[in-house]
TrEMBL record, chain A:
Entry-linked NCBIfam families: modB_ABC, PRK09421.1
Organism expressing this protein natively: Ruegeria conchae
Membrane topology listed for this record: Multi-pass membrane protein
Principal subcellular localisation of the protein: membrane
Domain of life of the native organism: Bacteria
Role of this protein: Part of the binding-protein-dependent transport system for molybdenum; probably responsible for the translocation of the substrate across the membrane.
CDD domains: TM_PBP2
UniProt-recorded name of the protein: Molybdenum transport system permease
Entries under InterPro entries matching the protein: MetI-like, MetI-like_sf, ModB_ABC
Start and end residues of each ABC transmembrane type-1 domain: 12-214
Family: Belongs to the binding-protein-dependent transport system permease family. CysTW subfamily.
Transmembrane segments: 20-38, 50-73, 85-108, 134-158, 197-216
UniProt keyword annotations, A-Z: Cell inner membrane, Cell membrane, Membrane, Molybdenum, Transmembrane, Transmembrane helix, Transport
From TrEMBL, chain B:
Source organism: Ruegeria conchae
Gene3D superfamilies hit by this protein: 2.40.50.100, P-loop containing nucleotide triphosphate hydrolases
Entry GO MF terms: ABC-type transporter activity; ATP binding; ATP hydrolysis activity; molybdate ion transmembrane transporter activity
SMART domains, sorted: AAA
PANTHER family: ABC TRANSPORTER I FAMILY MEMBER 10
Mop domain: residues covered: 291-357
Entry protein name: Molybdate transport system ATP-binding protein
Amino acid sequence: MGWLGPAEIEALHLSLRVSLWATLITLPFGIFVAYALARWRFPGRQVLNGLVHLPLILPPVVTGYLLLLTFGIQGPLGGPLAELGIVFAFRWTGAALAAGIMAFPLMVRAIRLSIEAVDPKLEQAGATLGASRLMVFGTVTLPMILPGVIAGAILAFAKAMGEFGATITFVSNIPGQTQTLPSAVYAFLQVPGGEAAATRLVIISIIVAMGALLLSEYVGRRVAKRVAGS
Amino acid sequence: MSLSVRMQHNLPAIALDLDFEAPPGVTVLFGRSGSGKTTVVNAVAGLLRPQAGRVAVGDWVLFDTDCGVWLPPHRRRLGYIFQEGRLFPHLTVRQNLNYGRWFAPREVQRENPDRVIEMLGIGHLLDRRPAMLSGGEKQRVAIGRALLASPRLILADEPLAALDDARKAEILPYFERLRDEVSVPILYVTHSAAEVARLATSVVALQDGQVVRFGPASEVLADPSVAPAGVRAVGAVLSVRVAAHHNDGLSELDAGGARLFLPRIAHRIGEDLRIRIPAQEVILSNRPPEGLSALNVLSGQVEKIRPGEGPGAIVSVNTPAGIVLARVTRRSVAALGLQQGSSCYAVIKTVALAPQDVGGRVV
């Protein structure tokens, strides 16, 4: 990667790290929420559905500001967490949190669709054969929704790589700390003569996004084939 | 082990209210679609929670609303064979068969997988996935999967309904073997009189959620008011023994001393069978018939004449082979002068005795 400057490599590294963590940490929650929305009928289901989708429709700057209010050092959650040693404000962890929240709706939608495609009668069959609910989920539901889970995770990763508005509002644009790929593009465009560096990062962004999309298609199709049993 | 079922449950379409105590063997829930059969089985399986009731296998209570007992489905030790098989598409046949075994406590595993696989003839399918199986093969694997869970109760919800006649003929013998070789009570749902005649130890006839008849197959099938297909499904069930196979493609049966001929069947000479004789395939005569092509003539006395709603009547004739039912017109009853106690001859066309109505005897 000789054609990239150190600041650009740093931004790419940071973006990959932020997106990977954002995806891995949110995945279990994403599966759980998707399952709850697809299979359970409970009061407040529509409210939960709305909350999950909120980051998708709110202006990202609003989401970022709400995160700052909640998880900032003086925030109702940020304060207690800081005492436990978990600090989000102006750290890469905060960038991961913002990216995870912004990617969450896409992840939940993909997984929920695949859960709704699983015939509950198969899960009933598992139960009559002696599998508890958790075992049915692990041995029937989860293997069958694997294509959707993988697609959702890759989609969330790509979204996290591109997250800009909420991140810059919540954790600012600190090189080496919170300056992710899109933030770096923005920063380079603000200084005279930064166009070349910005263009290189733009190309990398396109490659990562396209790569993620193709990979998700490919893996999804492979797994779907295996799950369908042909 | 006996099976006792009592439940009340109100659904939008029907109100379920039933109570029966079935002896060991195959208990068939028999009735039209919409009569509540599947609801009953799902409640026994724990997939549906009835508003009130009690279900027990022997002295093992699955649920009892009076004492607040409710075992979840996975603790009921069931083998549920569904109409559509419901094999897990992401697992191979071998993994499907082993699924119930993973969860059954080791000390209760009494079924030997090799024996079950051999009994069902699925040894060559083990590495395939369900998508690569035919309908009949899927259903055989589903039977094996249920058996290998070492269940205390086998449930079967119209397991043959999705299959064509040839596949039905392929699977039915496996259920007969289950009944005769596995000492687990079986609750079997069907609307086919032929399946009842072949499998049932006792029959629970359901109509609009109520038990309208409960008893041995021969009694229930003889009643036109309970047969789901109406009068067409009415028929007698006779116990017979294979006497001989003849060179002209016929098999000879011994029915209480009387002889019956039917198209060649695969059963061995000396084997005990039961055979269903549909009432609409029997004609009556008041003197010994001559010059008829029918080979089967049973002499006897009229036991009962039951007029139907239309122009027909069901006549029960007491013959050495057992009670035979004939569906004739009321006009013929009058023309032949038939009344209770009068002598008559029941004539059955040989080709009317279909091999799918012949099955192993209940032990």
